[in-house]
Structure formats: C-alpha cells, structure tokens
TrEMBL record, chains A, B:
Protein name: DJ-1/PfpI domain-containing protein
Organism field: Streptomyces thinghirensis
InterPro entries recorded: Class_I_gatase-like, DJ-1/PfpI, INH-QAR, TAT_signal
Superkingdom, taxonomy of origin: Bacteria
Domain called DJ-1/PfpI: residue spans: 51-213
One Pfam family from the record: DJ-1_PfpI
Amino acid sequence: MAETDRDRRRLLRTVVAGGIGAGLVTAGGASSARAEPAAREDVAGEEGEVRVAVLLYDGFTALDAVGPYEVLCRVPGVTVTTVAERAGRVRTDTGELSLVAERSLESVTRAEILLVPGGGQRGTTATMANPAVLDWIRHIHRRTVWTTSVCTGSLILGAAGLLRGLPATTYWASRPYLAEVGAVYTPGRFVEAGKIVTAAGVSAGIDMGLHLAARLAGDQVGRAMQLAVEYDPDPPFDTGSPENASPELQRLALRLLADAAT
Amino acid sequence: MAETDRDRRRLLRTVVAGGIGAGLVTAGGASSARAEPAAREDVAGEEGEVRVAVLLYDGFTALDAVGPYEVLCRVPGVTVTTVAERAGRVRTDTGELSLVAERSLESVTRAEILLVPGGGQRGTTATMANPAVLDWIRHIHRRTVWTTSVCTGSLILGAAGLLRGLPATTYWASRPYLAEVGAVYTPGRFVEAGKIVTAAGVSAGIDMGLHLAARLAGDQVGRAMQLAVEYDPDPPFDTGSPENASPELQRLALRLLADAAT
C-alpha cells in the first residue's frame, strides 16, 4: 500500500512536471515529455498542469464541490474547471444558491482529477440515472490520475460502474446504498481504492482535498494549503458523525435536509 | 455576557416565530406580531423567515461564503440569497469558479443576517474602497439581528465603519490590518461583539455558521446541522493556524495564495 502510494505520488509529480508522454499532454499545451519526475518536494513544477474537473448537476451540494476546490485550486500546477451537461448556471440542492459551470460535458475530454460532489436525494438519483453524465464520467475516468467523490457523489461513481467490489465511503445516511452499486462500505473520512478516492459527507471533501494536495505537491504544500484556508476546526458540538449522534438527532438532521430540499 | 446571549437568542427566536412588530416584517409577508417567543427549543417557527444576505463581489473566496451558507440554509425559517452590485455571475479570487448573485444591492433592503465573505487582496481592497457596497452594508446593518463576516470580510465591515473600538478577528495574515479600521484583534475561531460576529480565515465560517444556527434555532438544531454536513473534521496536518506553522510555512502559504490570485 505504501509502495502504491509512493508510485502514485511519483506519477502525479511527473504529471505536474510536464506530462508523462503523449498520453498526458498538459492543458497549457506546453507538454515537455520529461523522463524524470520533478525533484522538488515543496512545490510542483510550473511546466505542466493538473486539470481538475468538478462535475456540477442540478441539485448538487455546494460545499461538496467548493471544499475540495478551495484547497486544490492553489496547488502549483493545478487548474480547476466546472463542468455540467450544459455550461451556465447550475442550482444546488436548496435552490437558493447556484454555481456556474464553465464547460459542457462535450467540451471536456480529459482531466487528471475528476471530482463528483454529492447532492440531495433528487439530484443524486437523477444523476445516477443520467446516461450522458455516466458515460462522461466513465470516459474521463479512463485516463484520470485520481477519480474522486464527496458525499453521495460515490453513489454516482457507483452508478457509472466504477466501484464494483471496491471499498468506498459516502454520506453517513447513504451507507446502505453503497452495496447497491457493488461497493463495500468502509469507514473513514475518505477511502482510497487504487485511483478512486471517496470522501464521507459534505465537509469531508476538505480533508480529502488537503490529502490530495499533499499527494500532488508534497506534504509541505499540503500543510501550507491547510494554513491558507485556516483549517483549524473548532466546531461548537461533537455531533459531526452518526456514531456521536442519537437516533433522534439523526432523524432531525434528515428532516432538516428533506425540508430544505427542492 | 450570558445574559446578552440569552436576550439575543430570545430575539432571534421571536424573529423566527413571526417578527417582533412592524420593525421586523418577515420576508414571507405573513408577519404576526407575536408578543411571546416561540416555545419550541428544537425547531424555529414556520411563520417567519430569517433572511440571510450573502454579499458577493469580484474576487471573493468561495468557501468563505459557502461554508456558512451550507450550515444556515437548512435551519428552519432561514432563507438565503446572494447579493452583488449587479445580479449574475460573480468571479471568485482564483477566477476559476463563479457563483451567481441572485439579487442586486438595490433590490435587497432588509436582511436579518448579513454575511460578508473575505477575498483575495485585490477583491478585498477594491470592496473596501467601493462606496456603493459600503453604503449598502451600513444600510443593511442598521436593522440586522447579526452582521457577520468571514476572513478578510471583517476588513470590509471595518471599512464601512462598523468595527470601531470593537473586538474582531480576520484572516491570520491580515490581523495587523484590523487596527487600521479601528478594530481590536481578538483571538478566536470567531469573535462576537454585540450583534457583529467576525470569523477567522476561510474555513472558520463553518464553525461560525454552526454557532449561528444554534443561536437561531437552539442547540439541538445546531447539533443536527453539524451532523447534516458530517462535520467531523480530520485534517491530515495540524497547521491550520499560524501558531502551529513555521515562518517558512507561512511564507509558502502566502506565496501560493498570491500566485493563484487573479
């Protein structure tokens, strides 16, 4: 496992340093097929780019997308774009906030990192049944370095057939559904299975994002990004996981979610 | 202080329950000037709304706005809207992500909660020097129940003249600038000064949001919202505050921020 981790990190650093041959032409167009990975531990190379594609869909949860975005976007060599069936405004699960998708599915054919956020029940299930989106996910996944999800985004990866037999996590209340897409629920703030990384609910994407930042550019950049977003959490309660929440509190949380959903 | 806290909470619960007289007509239009606060501890009343206005401006930081939004939007009685000089797409500090402002400044004349996110240096300083935005902030602040900020958003509140002589916090690297707007830097994940609540950098808005959710609707709803966003943080490093970061790491964080800024 540690060996695999090192291999992946080496691969990523090579990608960042300028592409590992014709297969990974960089978004900047200035691909230099360097044979050796970048030597520097602290900052990834300037010559290449790691393209992060964040899938947006009607009913996604804003923080699922924005958490990892915020800690990945400033990693040297990383560029982020938002992608949806159609470019333009995409509504979140509450209907009260919209993000802009910069690109349509057709216009994005490669990404080194794919991020699929979770959403409310309506948005998640509709996306799990949307062949255009699932085809696109499978296509992008073929050549990603990391394919990632937050919250119920793992169910969407699962619906695309990417999690069969693999350990994964998801939103706490959706854990039973992982089996339906062939995945094996595994506890963890995020779970790695080869190049697939699934994070737990909503805010867990921040922890996963920092982990990926460190993999991309070294621990020192990961530490710096944690400072950059002043991520020194001090929640007022200790009820952030169902293990610390009574059944009554769990029901209340689910009712608040359902009541606010569109 | 505890007494003031109780008073404020009572006020908020009264607002949620349907307005405290002509001064606080609810957004839903169905203002019933109840004399007594709502009795229920767990869920705020259905009759009124607490309107949260999130200011967006070119160069704001996405997570500053989305963190508190995500934990406030599902609190019973709360409605959230995004506001900018002009309605429509508003770019974040990296230029790679945009959120949609649903409303223009002119179209929003009241809000029970004002939230001012921070931004990159360009966005923050431009907003601190924008009379239209500062006038709007002052106008809204006059009748808010809470006026809040995340990160360098406190410097914008300060530029509007709202922090003179008050304890406040801000982004770790911007602490020295609080004095320039007459505020007194005070350590804390968030700092309350009467009805003004300022949060530390970026991710601190999540902690502040949960605190406000509990104030709005009681601790049980606060706990439920922490579970709803599965906020059980487990960062890979411990460098989320400058107190835990070497000067070298602080310089690296600031360099990454500067390099990614537009």
